[in-house]
Amino acid sequence: MSSNLDQLYRQVIMDHYKNPRNKGELSDDSVTIHMNNPTCGDRIQLHLKIEDGKIMDAKFDGEGCSISLSSASMMTQAIKGLSVEEAQKLAHIFYNMMLGKEYEIENFDLGDIEALQGVSKFPARIKCATLAWKAMEKGVGSQTEKQ
Ligand code: FES
């Protein structure tokens, strides 16, 4: 990766870290998920509002490193308006990206998420980047089980 692109990606990550999108709580959420990264103890709470199989809103809060919190910010931005199945698909695309595997973006607009692809070179940080996504999968899973 060129160093210019690296630098741009770093700026995007820091922007999400310093100005997180969708930070806070939802008064009318369908599910709240608490999840922590066992390797460091950092944690996030994710609030999802799910209606008719669609993610209507998402907010998060937490304590963690720049990678974990910027990833949570990007994730909440990306999943709003998606169906549960689409959000699960997007999580798998993201996991492949983190593992440095080939990934098909299909019809998704990855937007800022692509700024995290460099994390795949730092295996110890992958759990930071996937924390919010695992929380989202758990949240949508618990909702689908209920139906
Ligand atoms: Fe704890 Fe990144 S160091 S989530």
CATH-assigned fold name: Sufe protein. Chain: A
- Spatial order of the strands forming the largest sheet: 1-2-3
Tell me the number of structural domains. 1
| Contiguous uncertain segments of 5+ residues | none
Tally the helices: 4
Order of helices and strands: HEEEHHH
Please report the total strand number as a whole number: 3
Structural descriptors:
17% strand; Sufe protein. Chain: A; 3-stranded antiparallel β-sheet; alpha+beta; globular; binds FE2/S2 (inorganic) cluster; 147 residues
What does this structure look like?
The protein has 147 residues and is α+β, with helices and mostly antiparallel strands. The chain has four helices and three strands. A three-stranded antiparallel sheet has the order 1-2-3, with helices on one face. A hairpin with a 2-residue loop joins β2 and β3. The chain starts with a helix and ends with a helix.
In terms of topology, how is this protein built?
Layout: H1 3-18, E1 31-36, E2 43-51, E3 54-63, H2 66-79, H3 84-98, H4 123-146
Helix pairs in contact: 1-2, 2-4, 3-4
This protein binds FE2/S2 (inorganic) cluster.
FE2/S2 (inorganic) cluster (FES) binds next to helix 2 and helix 4.
